[in-house]
Amino acid sequence: MILKVEHATLFEYDSPIYETATEVRLHPSNNHAAPQRCASFKLQVDPPATIFEYTDFYGNCVNHFNLLQSHKRVKIVATSVVETGIGNTSATDDEDIFLMDFSGESRYVHFDPAVRDFTTCFATNTGSAQLAESICRHINESFIYEPGVTDVHSTSAVVMALGRGVCQDFAHIMLATCRYLGVPARYVSGYLFGGSTPDGRDEASHAWCEVYCGKEKGWIGMDPTHSTLFVDDRYIKIGSGRDYGDVPPVRGTFKGNATEKLSVAVKVSSMDEKN
Fold first, then answer.
1. What phi and psi values does residue 148 have, to the nearest 5 degrees?
2. Residue-wise pLDDT tens digits, 138-194
3. Strands annotated E in 56-151
4. Which of 24, 86, 186, 269 has the most crowded CB, counting CB atoms within 10 A?
5. Residue 217: pLDDT above 90?
């Protein structure tokens, strides 16, 4: 499947600010760990800025820029074309020391008492893939999808207490459960084409998990938000990390005495349908 993504982020300020430093993680993954190929990527910034690029510790592409002149708005538009479904996630030779990052607690993933209690219903004598599938299905059946009750800074402990949340929250719960039971798992940021959330809303930006199932099987993508569970060619991966804190779409700081307003618009469309 060939998919086009148009992702627009707008920052508006009620007073002029005079310096902005911004990191952008919107470039679709183009490495062996994702069954996709990024055919093209374009990033535009207004006011215009020189855009730099680097690869972070987890292999994600990061664009970054500074704006030094006075301004009251910053618009960031990322346009991508991605070919998905070009093969399975490949096996990996990730070393144990690297997998340790995906085996313990992190900023948004906690082994709190509620998570420990949640793990008691799972049979740990199965293989890691079967165990992760059981966890994924149980989260999908046990938690209520409800936008607005959490935010991007909500931890797994908060979501456990609420019993509800959105895709990012469900991913954090799955990470906490898998890791506590000894299965390495990582957070994935990306997009979902043609998907609708459990409350019937269209969904574009999305989050799910990848579970490490040994060197032979590698990383397997699973989605606790949707009953399909397994990631297919409708998914576009941007990047992965320990949790949301490692792969926020846009992160930055500014100097100035102003209140910031953020708005985001994402559209994912199939280019196959146009042919």
1. 95, -15
2. 999 999 999 999 999 999 999 999 999 999 999 999 999 999 999 999 999 999 998
3. 61-67, 71-84, 144-145
4. 186
5. no
Residue with tokens 């990322």: 78
Identify the residue whose tokens are 């890691």.
Answer: 128
- If DSSP codes are grouped into helix, strand and coil, which group holds residue 267? strand
Residue 274 CB contacts under 8 Å (≥ 6 apart), including other chains: none
How far is Cα 204 from Cα 199, in angstroms, rounded to an integer?
14
Find, among 272, 263, 249, 113, the residue nearest to 194 by Cα. Answer: 272
When computed from its CA atoms, the radius of gyration of the chain, rounded to whole angstroms, is 19
The pLDDT tens digits of the residues spanning 7-49 come to: 999 999 999 998 899 999 999 998 766 789 999 999 999 999 9
Q: Please, are residues 62 and 24 in contact by the beta-carbon 8 Å criterion? A: yes
Could you tell me how many residues make up the chain?
Answer: 275
Nearest to 71, CA basis, from 25, 23, 22:
22
Count, in order, helices (H) and strands (E) of the chain.
6, 15
pLDDT tens by residue, 55-85: 999 999 999 999 999 999 999 999 999 999 8
- CB-based burial label for 198 (10 Å; 0-12, 13-18, 19+): middle
Could you give the CA distance from residue 56 to residue 265 in angstroms, rounded to a whole number? 25
Cα–Cα distance, 128 to 110 (Å, whole number): 20
- pLDDT at position 275: 47
Query: For 181, which DSSP code?
Result: T
